[in-house]
Amino acid sequence: MKNASTPLGVAIILLLSAGSARAQYTTAYITLFDGLTGYHSAEDLVLLPSGTVAVSGVFTPGSTTEFFTAAFTADGTPQWTNGLPDSIGQAWKIFQLNDGTLLSLGDYENHTGTNDVLAQRYSTDGVLLDQVVIDSPGLNNGDDLGDATMDAEGNVAPPAPSPPLARTSPDWRASPTGALEWWVTYPVPPHWNGFGKGLAVEAIGDSLVVLWTRNGSSYSAALGFAPSGAHLWTTDLQVTTNDNNNAMTTDGLGHVLVGGAHDQQFNVTKLDANGDVAWSTDFAFPGLGSASGQVRHVRCDAQGDVYAVGEGSFQASIPGPYLLLAKLSSAGNVLWMDTLTGGSYNYCLNMDHALLHDDRWTIATAYIGSYLYEYDTTGTRLFRQAWNVPGAQHSKVNAIVMGPDGALHLAGRAQLVGSSGDGFVAKLAPLATGIDPIGPTHTMLYPNPTTHRLQLPELPTDGGSITVSDIRGKTVYTTSFHNTIDVSALPSGVYFLERTGQHQRWRFVKE
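RE: above sequence
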């Protein structure tokens, strides 16, 4: 495992503050399942071309949970609900298929008292068209849905987690119309103690990569399957990954990325389509312990760069647990990191969901209250915004989708006192969208290669003081300036300069 390092580039300095719009949001609507009562939750959502939002989740009218699917119009008005009453179940994922219909996936308790995976297909007006029950042959302990993904042709594939000590790992795929296409098992290697839980699945072209935990081991395993369901390869990852289906993603370039922990550090591992490890990077934030830290969420941009969110434990030096945000290059080098803290020892900081879109990265967290954070792709935090369902302790966001108008569509659970809570859908409209491009007056400035001084023409000639911080936001030193800054004492790396008491800020990379 290689250690994190900051790659070096040409030394440039760039004004950030002027011409950058801070894209905050205003609430367009919030719609609850049942008026802040019950034990309900929205787990996933899909935004239809009409502006309708369809969600999958759980509804509990009494003491029994129900496999639940619902739709809401573009203004948040409830349109229809459907599902499987008295099913002791939950719908975890939802997709719009090639024919325009909706496929809702989850699990429920069958007549024998064990779980089966359930797939229900609906018309866009809520009519149940058909359903498929997945009951693993010969496995009497039942099946739970771990994750599901859709490939470019519209096929949907979830891993079906094995029961404890099972000697096979099941996987299956549904066609673009929702029909069961194949169901396969793969024998567990002899030196393993069986598969545990199916964590995540991703498509590479028309092939599938499935991530499982291993019983009797803290490590996870990745398996590749052909379009026919034939097993292609198995990679025994030396990485610990928890039960979180956001911990794997594809870069769209023939690779999958897996987040987890290794050697008491945060870790991201990259695999190619043959299951070979391209790179595996360990990293930790300086000064913060990472013994129990783990990457829980990974996403990639169009260039293959990786955005990761990890959860860290309580620290003596900060108030409560923390989130570690990091960007890694497509080659596995750490480009920048930042931390978010929970603010209290009595509340856990939960990583809910993150959305990478255009030039921004939006992260939703829930503790005490609920917050949205937004960053640009260089690691600059654009804002922190409090957001919550009125009347709830906090609002846990399970899914975020961005609409064509730049609005965020959220689905989740409004947490009440104790274990009660209500499912919600919400739309947040942007007050300002995107980050404006740097204007022509803000030219890139190069430090003098001999004197190592940076000229800052937009600062007054009477001088003042400026604070130099590293990429993690830690102050390196404060120095005086008279049109130029001496950077000869700085080691190679990425730095921020900010005029003391002002809002003028620059970023540069020193070789």
